[in-house]
From TrEMBL:
Record lineage: Bacteria, Bacillati, Bacillota, Bacilli, Bacillales
Gene3D superfamilies given in the database record: NAD(P)-binding Rossmann-like Domain, UDP-galactose 4-epimerase, domain 1
EC number in record: 5.1.3.2
Oligomeric and partner information: Homodimer.
Designated name of the protein: UDP-glucose 4-epimerase
Record family assignment: Belongs to the NAD(P)-dependent epimerase/dehydratase family.
CDD domains associated with the record: UDP_G4E_1_SDR_e (cd05247)
């Protein structure tokens, strides 16, 4: 029996593949490589380059392999871009997932672990955010992820498809052993941007707004180690195997850091000065996002192994130093 991981060559996807391989799972990856990196796929993975829109390819994969469950990452995931191109997000995320799930139903694959997001909540009413809090997304990215979560629920009622939707807060860090890491083009996430400044690849980091209602005026986020996210996917699959029930969980550390605190931690870890300037707020950014991950803790038995921001940054830095130009130059010895 195999697990199909869509988007398995992307940042969180590839770390999850690594975790699943280390657990002895048989993994099949489907990734279009539009954003993902083939070099992020280590030995032992069966890889198909292609899209979740490709019904024939999906059908072929489901016929060739005995797929027990799907872990579904393949999606567009940039908030700003989603506001500019909502139709692309509906197409890539909602229509793509529809095609995938249609094939799952056809081939009687009954379990899916889904990569969802804190963006499903929009501007939070309560901090920390609980799974039962209102979901009113403020951008098409969050809206399309929420639409997919709802689609899975209806597919449970109709076809018995059981899902675990994992709402991540801010994924960060890299494989502690330095085998794989984070490489987006263009990069938009705070920690890799700050580390690029430390590497001399950018002159400075911009702090998007210092007039928020927070302790130092910059936004607060809950940073969660990518390998802790990876482990949560594995525990979610184990729960599906055990209980065969549909559920939704937040994944975060339950602790928030301001943008300024993140930059300061990066200075400490890297020993670089890291110049920072304050600029305008970024559209659509809530002031504070912190997860209550109590439910994942109780029901999945999930406990982050790397909760300290310093550790998260150290692991990210280790990969950035070894791979200053990311995956494309293949400086890293990228083997398990
Ligand atoms: N941020 C920033 N400068 C940057 C990139 C991000 O100040 O160059 C801020 C951003 O406004 C947010 C936080 O850092 O408050 C985390 O942003 P990121 O894009 O990493 O993740 P998001 O919270 O959007 O998922």
């Amino acid at each position: 029996m195999s697990v199909l991981i869509t988007g398995g060559a992307g940042y969180i996807g590839s770390h999850t593949v690594l975790y699943f391989l280390d657990k002895g799972e048989d993994v099949v990856v489907l990734d279009s490589l539009e954003k993902g990196h083939k070099q992020a796929l280590l030995d032992g993975v069966t890889f198909y380059q292609g899209s979740i829109h490709d019904e024939a390819l999906l059908s072929d994969i489901f016929q060739k392999h005995t797929i027990e469950a799907v872990v579904h990452f393949a999606a567009s995931s940039l908030v700003g871009e989603s506001v500019e191109k909502p139709l692309d997000y509906y197409e890539n995320n909602v229509i793509g997932s529809h095609t995938l799930v249609k094939q799952m139903v056809k081939h009687e694959v009954k379990h899916i672990v889904f990569s969802s997001t804190a963006a499903t909540y929009g501007e939070p009413k309560n901090i920390p955010i609980k799974e039962t809090d209102p979901t009113i997304p403020t951008n098409p990215y969050g809206e399309t992820k929420l639409a997919m979560e709802k689609m899975f629920r209806w597919c449970d009622a109709a076809y018995g498809l059981k899902s675990v939707c994992l709402r991540y807060f801010n994924a960060a860090g890299a494989d502690p052993d330095g085998r794989i890491g984070e490489d987006h083009t263009p990069e938009s996430h705070l920690i890799p941007i700050v580390l690029q400044v430390a590497l001399g690849q950018r002159e400075q980091v911009q702090i998007f707004g210092e007039d928020y209602d927070t302790k130092d005026g910059s936004c607060i986020r809950d940073y969660i180690h990518v390998m802790d996210l990876a482990e949560a996917h594995y525990l979610a699959l184990e729960k599906l195997r055990r209980d065969n029930t549909t559920s939704i969980y937040n994944l975060g550390n339950g602790k928030g850091f301001t943008v300024k605190e993140v930059i300061e931690t990066c200075r400490e870890v890297t020993g670089h000065e890291i110049p920072a300037v304050v600029s305008e707020r970024r559209a659509g950014d809530p002031a504070t996002l912190i997860a209550s991950a109590e439910q994942a803790n109780q029901e999945l038995g999930w406990q982050p192994r790397y909760p300290e921001l310093k550790t998260i940054v150290e692991h990210a830095w280790k990969w950035h130093v070894a791979n200053p130009t990311g995956y494309d130059k293949e400086i890293a010895v990228n083997k398990r």
